[in-house]
Amino acid sequence: MSEAWLVWRARHGDRNALDRLLSRELPAIRGCLRRVIGADAELDDVTQLALIEIVRSIDTYRGEARLSTWMIRIALRTAWRHIRSRSKVISLAAVADAAAHAASPGRTDSGAELAQMRAVVAGLPVDQRMVFLLRDIEGYTTREIAELLELPQGTVSTRLRAARERIRAHVEGCPSRASADDRLAEVSS
């Protein structure tokens, strides 16, 4: 069945169609949320909240963006509300996952240096961290991030630049300047 047909069926109360749509997109939603929330117990809670919001909002999907983009946008807004309501620093697990994903197998950096870089990324303001993770870890384009977060592209670029500058400032302050650019590339690639 086509995606458009499944959406139409879901809007008209077909639970099987809705289940198919959600199960198809769940890995992408969960993966994106894992980068933002972390791999802890809160990930399940936020994922559940996001899925509830998607189900409630299925009638508002207009087909102007891909369904996966629309669902991830809702999931990210849910995560954003969750983070702000809890006034909680995102767990280092999100950055640990991202850095592990980005690290190349032949790296010789010490675990302490990598942990320090993770902490720097985790210490970014939420709006900068979210843009940084989506762009430099998940690989979304600036335009896609703007759509996902419903922000102007210029705002996304500004937040990304600010995040990278904060990370670069930390890296430049590291004792071993020779490998500082490599560590930055490791976190942002």
Overall spatial form? elongated
Strand content bin: under 5%
Briefly, what CATH class of the largest domain? Answer: Mainly Alpha
Low-confidence stretches: 87-93, 99-105, 175-185
Major sheet description: none
Structural class: mainly alpha
CA(first)-CA(last) distance: 37 Å
What is the H-and-E element order? HHHHHHHHHH
- Quickly count the helices: 10
Number of domains: 2
CATH superfamily of the largest domain: Winged helix-like DNA-binding domain superfamily/Winged helix DNA-binding domain
Helical fraction equals: over 70%
Number of strands: 0
Rounded to an integer in angstroms, the radius of gyration calculated over CA atoms is 18 Å
CATH architecture level-2 label of the largest domain? Orthogonal Bundle
CATH level-3 fold name of the largest domain: Arc Repressor Mutant, subunit A
Mean pLDDT: 78
In a few lines, what is going on in this structure?
The chain has ten helices and no strands. With 189 residues, the chain is mainly alpha-helical.
Write the layout of secondary structure elements.
Blueprint: H1 3-11, H2 15-37, H3 41-57, H4 67-86, H5 92-102, H6 111-122, H7 126-137, H8 142-149, H9 153-172, H10 180-188
Describe the protein in words:
The chain has helices at 3-11, 15-37, 41-57, 67-86, 92-102, 111-122, 126-137, 142-149, 153-172, 180-188. The protein has 189 residues and is mainly alpha-helical. The chain is elongated and about 60 Å long. It folds into 2 domains: 3-86, Rna Polymerase Sigma Factor, Chain: A (Orthogonal Bundle), CATH 1.10.1740.10; 92-188, Arc Repressor Mutant, subunit A.
